[in-house]
Design brief:
It is built from six helices and twelve strands. The chain is an alpha+beta fold and about 300 residues long. It has two domains: about 140 residues, Roll (Urate Oxidase); about 150 residues, Urate Oxidase (Roll). The structure holds uric acid. The site of uric acid has 8 residues, from helix 6 and strand 12. Belongs to the uricase family. It is an enzyme of class 1 (oxidoreductase).
Length: about 300
């Protein structure tokens, strides 16, 4: 015997670019997004009885994403993701729950001779601004905003010593090393009851401010902290974001520790390239450390 215990479906990797043209100034802006919308509800029979009468075609889901991108604001992405999440539950009485992901890609305005160009942009990095929304009929909206794929590296100001030493340890302690990671930082909002609540919050500019703050705190702490470890540095980042952004309940970081090994070149004419003489390093693609944490407002540590 077996039974269906979970089911959701929809369209992933729906791509769109929206252009905003200001008639007064002639200045144009653009937003490129990749969207995923998954639906859940009374859809079991489509799996268990080949009953397509309960299926909203994923092609229609894709069409709806395009239509709502045209007819409603897509910025901030928290608002667009919430608009999509609530739409499908309002439109179809048998759909009770949605899972929406909106990835916003970077198109940063170009400068020409120090002046912002009115309609030209460049992709300055693979970093994305992401939003995940989970909506349940009568259950409110859970929003998670994030920065993903922000690559950073510092050549000093990072140490790692005092760790466990036993018969499995070969790593040397260091008081000066390269630190590099790809930031994945999530901030989770207090629950919003309705789409109207998300709209009013969006109108205050607080979603954009939180993204700016999270990015600023992450980069400033990365640069300025004389890091004792990835763990200690990420905890400082998370604490500061919670402290400075009301409405955020939890902050999570997931940071790969990308290693750069010293290369001993002494075999060639006694070249010195280790310790304080290290200049040429070997970047490692794998394995990498992976350090994660979740920091919550007003919560007693469960660890
Ligand atoms: O910042 C670090 N944290 C660790 O847990 C760890 N483990 C390791 O080998 N190097 C590092 N660096």
């Amino acid at each position: 015997m077996s039974s269906l215990t979970s089911a959701r479906y929809g369209k992933d990797n729906v791509r769109l670019l929206k252009v905003d043209r200001c008639p007064k100034t002639g200045i144009q802006t653009c937003t490129e997004m990749t969207v995923c919308v998954l639906l859940s509800g009374d859809i079991e029979t489509s799996y268990t009885k080949a009953d397509n009468s309960v299926v909203v075609a994923t092609d229609s889901t894709k069409n709806t994403i395009h239509i709502l991108a045209k007819t409603t604001p897509i910025n901030p992405p928290e608002l667009f993701a919430s608009t999509l999440a609530t739409h499908f539950v309002n439109q179809y009485s048998h759909i009770h729950e949605t899972f929406v992901k909106v990835i916003t890609h970077r198109w940063t305005r170009l400068d020409v001779d120090g002046k912002p160009h009115p309609h030209s942009f460049h992709r300055d990095g693979v970093e994305t601004r992401n939003v995940d929304v989970h909506y349940q009929r009568n259950g409110g909206l859970n929003l998670r905003s994030s920065i993903v794929g922000l690559h950073v590296l510092k050549t000093t100001g990072s140490q790692f010593h005092g760790f466990v030493r036993d018969e499995f340890t070969t790593l040397k302690e260091t008081w000066d090393r390269i630190l590099s990671t790809e930031v994945d930082a999530v901030w989770e909002w207090q629950k919003f009851r309705t789409l109207e609540d998300v709209k009013s919050f969006a109108a205050t500019g607080k979603f954009d401010k939180a993204w700016e703050l999270a990015r600023y705190v992450t980069l400033k702490t990365f640069c300025e902290d004389n890091s004792a470890s990835v763990q200690a540095t990420m905890y400082k980042m998370a604490q500061e974001i919670i402290e400075k952004a009301p409405g955020i309940e939890h902050v999570e970081y997931s940071l790969p520790n990308k290693h750069f090994f010293e290369i001993d070149l002494s075999w060639h004419k006694g070249l010195k390239n280790t310790g304080k003489d290290a200049e040429v390093y070997a970047p490692q693609s794998n394995p990498n450390g992976l350090i994660k944490c979740r920091v919550s407002r007003n919560a007693k540590s469960k660890l």
